[in-house]
Every structure is written in C-alpha cells, then in structure tokens.
Amino acid sequence: MPLAVRNMVLPVAFSIALSLSGEAAAEVIATKSYSYFDIRGKTAEELDQELSRRGPTASGSSARHPGATKIRFGGEATYIQDDGRCRVGNVKVTVHTQIILPRWNSRRGASKELSMIWDALSSDIKRHEERHAEIARDQARAMERAIRALPQQRSCEAMQELVSNESARGIEEHDRLQARFDRVEAVNFQKRMLRLLNNRIKGRAGAK
C-alpha cells in the first residue's frame, strides 16, 4: 500500500495596524487537530481498496491518499512610524494543521498477521503526517524571524510590501520543504515498512 500525501496550504494574509511608537514583539501560534476516516476489510487487499476509496483527497486532485495534513497559515503585523522611517512592530504568525488519519473499524476477527501489518502501516502514516505538521510549525517560526528582521523603510506602504513579499517567499519555501520530504519518504517507503514489520516480529518473539 503506497504512501502518498499532499498538503493544502493557504497563503499568509497579514492584517495591518499602524502605530506611532512602541517596542517590537513577535509571536507564533501553532494549533493542531485530528480527524479520521473509517475503513473496513479482512485482507490486505481489502484494506488497500478502502484506503484508495475513502482516503482524503489532495488540493487540486481527485486522487485518494492513506492520510493527509491540511495546513493553514495566517498572521498579522503592526508598523511603527518614527522619525520619518517605518519598521515592523508586532508580528504574529499563525499555523493550524489538521491531520487526517485512517481508522480500521473491522479489526475484530482479522488475522494476527494482518493486524501486525496494519499496526506498522498506520503508525508510519501517523509519523509521516506529524512530520508534515512539524515542518509547517518550523516554517512559521522561520517566517516570524525573517519578518521581524526586515530593515526599516521610508514609508509604511513600502514596509507593508516588504512584509508581503517575505511572507510569500516563506510559503514558497514551506511548499518546497514539504515536497522534498514527500520525495524522500516515497523512495524509502518499502525499506521503512520492512524495518517496522521486522521490529514488530522480533518484539512478538521476545514477548513469548
């Protein structure tokens, strides 16, 4: 059962406020939620079919996936005008991630072998999606630092444009990092699953 995930990303939309004076401050707010889709099956083939039929879709595609992470960025900034110059005041970057995972609801009566395969697969799907969420959180922090470090401008209009360009660049970098992670994961999927299964087999043998 191949693992393929895409992320839905919305652009950062910074709301603007103007202040005559004040100290700069920064904040990153990251939130995370989970949702599940149910699948049924008593064979590996049936579970594979259910994942392909019921799994979440990616933005702009009708293809189904075993799991997904939806990501939404947002933020706001204030600008401080002082002595004919404008600089960034307060910066807040928000990122919300919704992790969508499969839930096998017909496990009772399934073989031990299938249960072991499912445990290995579902744990790998969850690990994969958690990493997508972590990449998004890391990039939100990087965006906050980059915006806070922007140089002063002659006008707050110019400062606002600089912040907008930097946030767009941060989103592009985020998408690049997510795509690179998916490529690496796809290449290593078979080896990773074999390792997980071998570890679970050894764990069961040691427990006897």
From TrEMBL:
Keywords: Signal. InterPro entries: DUF922. Residues 1-24 form the signal peptide. Residues 48-68 are annotated as: Disordered. Pfam families: DUF922. This is Peptidase. It comes from Rhizobium sophoriradicis.
